[in-house]
Amino acid sequence: MSVLIKGGRVVTAADDYVADVFIEGERVSLIGEALDVQADRVIDASGKYVLPGAVDPHTHLAMPWRGETTIDDYESGQTAAAFGGTTTHVDFCIQGKGQTFAEALETWHGKREGKAVIDNGFHIAITDLSTAERLEELGRLPEEHGVTSYKLFMAYKDSLMVDDETLFKAMQVAASSGALVMVHAENGDAIEVLTAEAIAAGNTSPRFHALTRPPELEGEATNRAIQLAHVAGSPLYVVHVSCAESVEPIALAREKGWNIWGETCTQYFFIDQSFLDRPDFEGAKYVYTPPPRPKANQEVLWNAVRTNVLQAISTDHCAYLFKGQKDAGRDDFRQIPNGGPGLENRLQMIHHFGVREGRISLNRMVELLCTNPAKLFGLYPRKGTLAVGSDADVVVFDPEKRVTISAATHHSRSDYNLFEGTEVVGSPELVLLRGNVIVDGTELLAQPGSGRFVRRARFGEELRPAALQTA
Ligand code: URP
Ligand code: ZN
Ligand code: ZN
Questions:
Q1: For the chain, is the Cβ count within 10 Å smaller at the N or the C terminus?
Q2: Residue of the nearest CA to atom 2 in ligand 1?
Q3: What percent of the chain has a predicted confidence (pLDDT) above 90?
Q4: For ligand 1, is residue 162 a contact (CB within 6 Å)?
Q5: 57: Cβ below 6 Å to ligand 1?
């Protein structure tokens, strides 16, 4: 099967030009002006952007946690992703206490089988590193499982949190195995104290989710992780950076040339702390972690992504129902499942409010949503760009299409949308995964099970199709 995408504006992290893209089988085989080739299917892309399929490095599909399971499984979550122009994501495989990593990975592979409509890899989320066997197994994950990033939670004392000894040992393993360490950076011990005090004082409403997790505690943990990673000699990626207190230590470390990277998520640009006060318990929709911050942080985050203090924008898609899951916390904010949906709307939101409103360039948008996540997580140049030999993961994006974002039309199973009612201009029209059209307008064409697991390269190494390897 061959496809010719004709006359679109091809935009990568580096380039922006009108060209034809010729796809043979699963890969891009030619990019050029007015290509003289025969194709099984010709797509007219004039007036459209031709973008690399977006890569989301932070999602939680079918994740059991604190007695609830996130409402999007691999089929619904990846369908939402596909409609939003995301063709690859890296999901968190959570190690149960006492479990081997191989057991955890087997469970997560089972979740995607027969359901996946886009490609994905796994990060391992470490909860238990207490034996020599686990430490040794951790070092083998890149080679044996194609899992080249380790995530550790510095908060959630009731469930996922690890101590500094575990964090530091994981960093030491990563320094020799070639993995990238990721941290959820908040001081879990201090949050536990503040939370207990709030409840004892009768402060149970959603706003206390934010007030018991102040930005200083994110800043402290971010700085602690940075210093530990520097001593251990491992690269570090700070997930869901939400505030100035966390941006500042990352900026300082990067100024010193340290191997520190970071992401923020779409919601932190648009949703501020006041959303938690919405009436009728609607504030619970915005209970995710770190919490929505005071509005001034939004400009700090735009600056951070513009100046490369942060290199990626993810979604942290962790979807729950408002009615039936979030409402378990009506009388106690601690019982509100933490997380929100977002996989489908990242490209639309960042294009409209980032590019159209002049905060970042079109190239920088591609870099933040596609190329950098692919580079940092061992997927590039197979994913994250449009180049000869890359997987033909392509978004034909209509920059003038008007859309009103709504739970009534989104593809997540969540009964609400974080950006409900937001009007954006610009939306994916056609999405291809490895040369196959998987979304055409409002139609999903991918078969459940057609998405593939991607074994990722080690941090700093490239993932090339075997035929194109240079050395
Ligand atoms: O609230 C959130 N972010 N839920 C998912 C788990 C995490 O901390 O990433
Ligand atoms: Zn987190
Ligand atoms: Zn997360």
A1: C
A2: 339
A3: 98
A4: no
A5: no
Average pLDDT over residues 65-77: 98
Locate the ligand 1 atom nearest the alpha carbon of residue 338 and give its number.
1
pTM attached to this predicted model: 0.98
Taking the CB of residue 214, how many other CB atoms lie within 10 A of it?
Answer: 20
Q: What is the 3-state secondary structure (H, E, C) of the chain?
A: CEEEEEEEEEECCCCEEEEEEEEECCEEEEEECCCCCCCCEEEECCCCEEEECEEEEEECCCCEECCEECCCCHHHHHHHHHHCCEEEEEEEEECCCCCCHHHHHHHHHHHHCCCCCCEEEEEEECCCCCCHHHHHHHHHHHHHHCCCEEEEECCCCCCCECCHHHHHHHHHHHHHHCCEEEEECCCHHHHHHHHHHHHHCCCCCCHHHHHCCCHHHHHHHHHHHHHHHHHHCCCEEECCCCCHHHHHHHHHHHHCCCCEEEEEEHHHHHCEHHHHHCCCCHHHHHCCCCCCECCHHHHHHHHHHHCCCCCEEECCECCCCCCCCHHHHCCCHHHCCCCECCCCCHHHHHHHHHHHCCCCCHHHHHHHHHHHHHHHCCCCECCCCCCCCCECCEEEEEEEEEEECCCCCCCCCCCCCCCCCCEEEEEEEEEEECCEEEEECCEECCCCCCCCECCCCCCCCCECCHHHCCC
- Of all protein residues, the one whose alpha carbon is nearest to atom 8 of ligand 1 is 289
Q: What is the pLDDT of residue 464?
A: 85
Give the position, in ligand 1's atom list, of the atom nearest the Cα of 287.
1
The preferred substitution site among 60, 70, 217, 315 for testing ligand 1, maximizing ligand atoms within 8 Å of CB, is 60
pLDDT band at 470 (very low <50, low <70, confident <90, very high): very low
Q: How many CB atoms lie under 10 A from the CB of residue 182? A: 30
The model's pLDDT over 11-38, given as tens digits with 9 standing for 90+, comes to 999 999 999 999 999 999 999 999 999 9
Residue nearest to atom 4 of ligand 1 (CA): 339
